[in-house]
TrEMBL record:
It comes from the Bacteria. Residues 180-361 form the ABC transmembrane type-1 domain. It is a multi-pass membrane protein. One of its GO terms (biological process) is transmembrane transport. It is found in: Cell membrane. The chain crosses the membrane at residues 62-81, 101-120, 132-153, 186-206, 218-238, 244-265, 286-316, 336-363. The keyword Transmembrane helix applies. Keywords: Cell membrane, Membrane, Transmembrane, Transmembrane helix, Transport. GO terms for cellular component: plasma membrane. This is NitT/TauT family transport system permease protein.
Length: 377
């Protein structure tokens, strides 16, 4: 005889008292609600989605401004290379063919980068914003070439074509680089001395009323005097022209650094000092770890201003008495009517000054990382 269902259970199957609604009991006897079916339009999890190929997701649009710049520079290179130069007396513009070939090659490289931009991804992100500037520079260089070497509209030797600058950088590179090195060394000595003295003076004035009582009037009286006005006195007092130039550069640097450091220290919230003293901080700890860090944004502004003033007085001092440097090179080129050399030195000056300010901004962004980008350059 076949056994009846649930024969092993003396009282039959357990009674749930529920209809077949999808509800279930847990092991502890707690009734669980039925699970809602997922709606049809619910997006699939990221792990379940099909992966997008990296090449398709990172593809960038064509660099149209770069392509236009490449074509513009190609035109400049061709006219420099193939269009003959106009006769200009005894002056011959050397490196004309070489400049045309180099410009054409650079234009080809720029055009290739612009056309390959969709496959290069983000490699050209830093170069893309410069597209319009590259077009403007190409147009300016082409007009410069036509007005000087090709048609002679602008008089020589006051105006020379672009390839004459290349001639100066190639043939007179030794003297120009030596002058740039002497200028950097003189600027470094004067700027470091002025920045150090100005920083210490500003901290002392901002922290001590006694020091401020005696030093503040001197700064207000001597500081606004242009450093170049003291040039004859400095060359008379100091034993060498180099020492006099260092003093003048330090004076031009120290005044803005001292004033802005003093302003930064004096403007620190007094509650910071009270909290530090309440926690048992010493006087030196409050100065070094509270006052100076809080004043650093103002200190860097003073350093930026001091660097600009130092560079201007550097050129003046080198023109007047120092026997080497970019200022001396300018005077030498002007004396020989070598205006192309003078223009080449001015370009080097601009690059050096801009590079130093950029380096100072990088240091500022590194030290004051919480204020990165608040001051633009």
């Amino acid at each position: 005889m076949a056994s009846a269902p649930y024969a092993s259970a003396p009282y039959g199957p357990p009674y749930t008292g529920l209809r077949q609604t999808g509800a279930s009991y847990s092991d502890a006897g707690v009734c669980r609600a039925p699970k809602e079916p997922a709606p049809a339009d619910t997006p699939a999890p990221a792990s379940a989605r099909p992966a997008i190929p990296p090449s398709a997701s990172a593809r960038q649009p064509l660099w149209w401004s770069g392509a236009a710049a490449g074509l513009a520079w190609l035109a400049v290179g061709v006219l420099t290379w193939l269009l003959p130069n106009a006769p200009a007396g005894f002056t011959e513009w050397n490196y004309t063919v070489e400049s045309g070939i180099a410009t054409t090659a650079g234009a080809g490289l720029l055009l290739a980068l612009a056309l390959a931009a969709p496959w290069l991804g983000s490699a050209l992100d830093r170069l893309r914003p410069a597209g319009l500037w590259l077009i403007a520079l190409a147009l300016f260089t082409g007009a410069w070439q036509l007005l000087t070497a090709k048609y002679g509209v602008l008089p020589t030797p006051f105006f020379a074509p672009p390839q004459s600058l290349a001639e100066v950088y190639i043939d007179d590179w030794a003297r120009l680089s030596d002058s740039a090195w002497h200028s950097l060394r003189l600027l470094g000595h004067g700027f470091l001395v002025g920045a150090g003295v100005g920083f210490l003076t500003g901290v002392a004035i901002g922290w001590s009323r006694a020091v401020g009582y005696w030093v503040h009037p001197l700064i207000r009286f001597i500081g606004p005097i242009p450093a170049s006005a003291l040039l004859p006195l400095a060359f008379f007092v100091f034993p060498s022209s180099y020492a006099a130039a260092v003093f003048l550069i330090a004076l031009a640097t120290g005044f803005p650094v001292a004033v802005l450091t003093w302003s930064g220290v004096a403007g620190v919230n007094r509650n910071y000092y009270d909290v530090a003293r309440t926690l048992g901080a010493s006087q030196w700890f409050v100065v070094l770890r509270v006052a100076i860090p809080a004043a650093l944004p103002q200190v860097f502004v003073g350093l930026f201003m001091g660097l600009g003033g130092a560079f201007s007085i550097l050129v003046t001092a080198e023109m007047m008495g120092v026997k080497a440097g970019l200022g001396w090179y300018l005077t030498w080129a002007q004396g020989w009517a070598a205006y192309t050399n003078m223009y080449a030195a001015l370009i080097v000056m601009a690059l050096v000054c801009s590079g130093l300010i950029t380096l100072l901004f990088a240091v500022r962004d590194r030290v004051l990382s919480w204020q990165k980008g608040t001051v633009k350059w």
